[in-house]
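In this notation, each integer encodes one residue's backbone shape. One such record reads:

___
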Amino acid sequence: MMLNKDNYWTGLLIGIAATVVFYGILYGVNLLVVQTLGRPMVEKSHYLMLLSVIPNLLLLRYYLVRKKFTKTGLSILTLTLLFVLLYFINYFQNPQ
């Protein structure tokens, strides 16, 4: 099984998939909240992108501490930091 291999590609695949799936779940829950309550779950919709990296932090701990897969954990960490950095570069270019 691919999830039990310690390599960089596995970590990248897991990190991207977890982020995209969790973003989809958050987006769907946000739409449901807007339809039922009439107001969004978060103040600005781009906050959902920042929240979507939360599963990566849990997966990072799992692969580094429990399984001792350093290559997989390092690639998940790098991808998570890249997502967060790109988020802040994209949405906070001109703070005022």
Notes: The helical segments are 8-37, 47-51, 54-66, 70-91. Residues 8-37 form the longest helix (30 residues).
